[in-house]
Structures are given as C-alpha cells and as structure tokens.
Design brief:
Layout: E1 2-5, H1 9-14, H2 16-28, E2 32-34, H3 44-48, H4 55-66, E3 71-74, H5 77-86, H6 95-103, E4 104-106, H7 107-115, E5 127-130, H8 134-139, E6 143-145, E7 152-154, H9 155-160, E8 167-168, H10 184-187, H11 189-205, E9 210-213, H12 216-229, E10 234-237, H13 238-242
Parallel strand pairs: 1-2, 1-3, 3-4, 5-8, 5-9, 9-10
Antiparallel strand pairs: 6-7
Helix pairs in contact: 11-12
C-alpha cells in the first residue's frame, strides 16, 4: 500500500507542526508514505470565492500528481470534500479522477475505516473538547447522529478514546458550526465571530483544556478569538494528539 500525503496549503505555511504530526501518525503505524513535493492548493479557496472555473487547472494538477497512489490521505475534511464532491465537472467521468475520488481520505476516516486502528501507544492527560467541523461531520460522516439524543457515535471519538489519559468532555452542542466557513468569516465577520465565541464558550463551560478537530481552518478561526480575548483554552489538530506530540 502506497500512500500519498496531501497537506493543505495554509497548514503548510501556518501550522507545519500539525503537518509533521500527520506524517508521524502514519509512520508510527509502519505505513509507506510519500509526500509529493510538487503538490499545490486543491483550489477550495478559489471555489469559495466564486472563481469555480479557475479551479480547473488546479484540479487536473491534483489528479495528475496523486493518481498513482493507492490511497491519498490528508489532515483536513474540507479539502478532501473539495476533491471528492466538487472536481467532477472538470473531468467528464475520467477514470483517473474516479480513482482519486475513491481513494482520498481525511486521515481519521482512513485510520478508522481503512486501517481500522485498534490502539495508539500514546498518552495525553488533558480534558479535550472535540469540535465537529462541518465538512467532516456532514460531508464525510465522521460523526453520525444518534436517533435518540444529541450524542454521537463518532469515528473521531473512537480514535481519541484510544489515547491513554485523555478525558473527552461532553459539549452542549456537538454539531454546531464555528462560523469560519471559508469566505463567510470575511463577508459576515460579526456573525462569524459570534458563532466562534459560542463554540469556545461551550468548550470552556464543559471543562475542556484543549479544543481539537480535523480541520485546522476551524481551529485557526477559534484560536484567533481565543488569543484576542485571552481565553483559558488551547487548540490542537487531532493528529498532534494521536501522534503523542501534544504533552
């Protein structure tokens, strides 16, 4: 099994430590991982800005780079959703794209569904709140709603439950958007800020010391609000916890 590691462009520039943790999670499981150095943006930022036609060149570049891998793994729900759900108009049922579409996974989805990890030999002795980002939750089904209550049988919770010493807190609203939403945070900053503050308050009120999730864009949005208001909580990408690098 040969894995191509895709790293979102903004994470590469702003959160390199989370990118390295993503690689280390896979390496710790003795998986064969390659990082193609010629990779670029998936085009999501352009699509969110209404420049959908301009995404075509990036989409074809992405497929050309990653089509030979057995699996493509990325530390992001939103970019994976971009490739799986929004590239199709540029390919006319191209077999290369269909292969990429069916082989790309957000890393937690990959660990839970493909590798079917049973344990992580790491510890993280903190109270953690899990933010279910919209793309990961609603498009990739990483958190599945129960028919009986608002608690979730979550793939992410299952993985975090394998980390020794980690205490996962119960939030009041596990399915609520943080307000980032790509360019929504630019066009509607007041609403976006209020939504982000609500999510932060929910985590703090639930006793979380750390807020984690699979989309660093959401965590970045809330980290800015946390730092500006000097709130007593930190954010970490979930791979930093699963790699045992967060203590």
């Amino acid at each position: 099994m040969k894995i191509g590691l895709f790293i979102p462009c903004f994470m590469n520039e702003l959160y390199p430590e989370a990118c390295v943790s993503t690689l280390n999670v896979l390496k710790n499981l003795d998986l064969d991982v390659d990082y193609p150095l010629n990779q670029t943006c998936c085009g999501q930022a352009m699509a969110n800005s209404g420049c959908s036609n301009e995404v075509k060149d990036l989409a074809h570049r992405f497929v050309d780079i990653f089509k030979e891998y057995d699996y493509i793994v990325a530390p992001t729900g939103s970019c994976v959703t971009m490739v799986k759900d929004h590239y199709a108009p540029f390919f006319n049922d191209d077999p290369a794209y269909n292969k990429v579409k069916n082989s790309i996974y957000e890393i937690c989805e990959f660990l839970h569904d493909v590798i079917q990890v049973k344990e992580f030999n790491v510890s993280f002795k903190h109270k953690v709140g899990l933010h279910n980002s919209c793309h990961a939750h609603r498009a990739l089904n990483l958190a599945t709603p129960s028919e009986l209550n608002i608690n979730y049988n979550s793939k992410l919770k299952n993985l975090l439950g394998m980390v020794k010493g980690l205490e996962l807190v119960t939030l009041q609203r596990e399915d609520e958007c943080c307000g980032f939403g790509g360019t929504f945070s630019v066009t509607e900053p007041d609403i976006s800020t209020a939504m982000g503050k609500d999510r932060i308050s929910d985590h703090i009120n639930s006793g979380a010391e750390i807020m984690t999730g699979v989309d660093m864009s959401c965590l970045m949005h809330m980290e800015g609000l946390i730092n500006r208001d000097n709130k007593p909580i930190k954010v970490m990408h979930i791979t930093q916890i699963l790699a045992g690098e967060g203590e």
